[in-house]
Amino acid sequence: MAFRHILPALFSVVFLVNCNKDSLKIATETKPSRPNILLLIADDMGKDATFGFSEGSIKPNTPNLNSLKASGLSFSNLWVNPTCSPTRASLITGKYGYRTGVKWAGDILSDTEMVLQNYINQQTNNTYATAVVGKWHLSGNSPNINPESFGIDYFSGIASGTVPDYYNWPLSEDGSSSTQTEYSTAYLTDLGIDWIAKQEKPWFMWMAYNAPHIPFHTPPSHMHSQGTLPEFTNGMDGTPYYMAAIEAMDFEIGRLIAAIPPDELENTIIIFLGDNGTPNQVAQFPYSNRTAKGTLYQGGVNTPMYISGSGVSRTGIDNNLICGTDLFATIANLAGTEVTEINDSKSFVALLTSSSTIRDFQYSEMDDGRTDSWAIRDKTYKLITNANGNQEMYNILTDPYEANDILTGTLNSNQLAAKTALENELQGIRK
After folding, report:
1. pLDDT for 195-244, tens place per residue?
2. β-pairing verdict for 176-180 and 154-158
3. Cis peptide bond N-terminal to 215, omega within 30
4. Which of 412, 309, 358, 281 lies closest to 10, judged by CA?
């Protein structure tokens, strides 16, 4: 696509100036004062299925995401939650799940919560047009409770956690549901393109694709490079179908961004992340079906994130400890608010232009009704604690994929001190 060739140039601020002072003044006065914000969320896309990370040997062909990565900043230590709903709730509230009650897929977010879009507009005199397109999954399966119930301007998408069929799925809009037969990733992109085209002020779009979440269905052939795939049946290897869904999503992300007028795109910041790790059916080494989606191991919570576009001058990889909650303060900061820390959220806007340290500790959690556990780490050690008192501890620098639980042996003095510090921080978080 032409987009992947022009994106780095569009994201570079290059002016060939041959004009007088009056024309410079006009250009300054007409330049938008606040950036558009495009938040792209992939459903079930871990680092092992993402270009630019060492995990996994099979990678999808994603030229558009690769362009975002090349022109911006890639984060190696983002922690989200093991399943989708808690991650989305933490992004939109800036709070850990135990505070909102959203701790597992399908949990319901109270409409009394202050969501990110409303916070931004309260702080900026309603500067932004706001939209959620795609997967919601913060109100159970009801189409009657949706982002518009929280005060967001526009919602059209998928109320529940997944679709039964990428080619036959329920679209929720205006409090009702209709059946759509167009490939869902393409249809959602059309919705996003149409909404952006209508906006006359700065906009914030939350674009949440259901891809590459199961079911394993083959996208239209022009969207992927996995060849002719037979209809998936149980017992087959789901990997090529999963990769095809990612490639189709990348194709549609390219189409979405290419549809943004160049002057708007120059003033747009794009954030891409995965909401949790790869599902165990298609998890790749060094992860396994024991350490992927649905767990607090790295394969479940450490997902990809790229940030590119307006105001992002750093490139390469940043190793800061970042929590999913931190997107709340960060996006609010980008939108022009003065907040640097709110609820459980710390802004990392500073990292987009310079190197600094944002967090000393990182936290995630899960409660699926059977297992209630929490994870915390510092730069070296990670501690997983279960509500029944069981613990595991790993040196995440020397053992990044958690093969050796050091609590099975005798801790040295440094390890004991680190464990105590992690426990104290965990107690402070959950008080």
Report:
1. 999 999 999 999 999 999 999 999 999 999 999 999 999 999 999 999 99
2. unpaired
3. yes
4. 309
Strand order in the sheet with 305-309: 176-180, 169-173, 154-158, 129-135, 203-208, 36-42, 268-274, 305-309, 73-75, 316-318
The tokens 């490639």 sit on which residue? 247
Domain positions in the chain: 33-360, 371-429
Residue 2 CA from chain centroid, whole number? 25
- In this predicted model, what pLDDT tens digit does every residue of 118-137 receive, in sequence order? 999 999 999 999 999 999 99
Domain 371-429 indexed as CATH 3.30.1120.10: yes
Show Cβ contacts of residue 84 under 8 Å, excluding neighbours closer than 6 positions: 43, 44, 105, 135, 137, 161, 275, 276
**Residue that has been written with the tokens 């079906």 in this structure:** 289
Whole-prediction pTM value?
0.92
Domain 33-360 classified CATH 3.40.720.10? yes
Which tokens in the block code for residue 366?
Answer: 């899960």
Q: pLDDT for 381-401, tens place per residue?
A: 999 999 999 999 999 999 999
CA dist 36 and 31 (Å) reads: 12
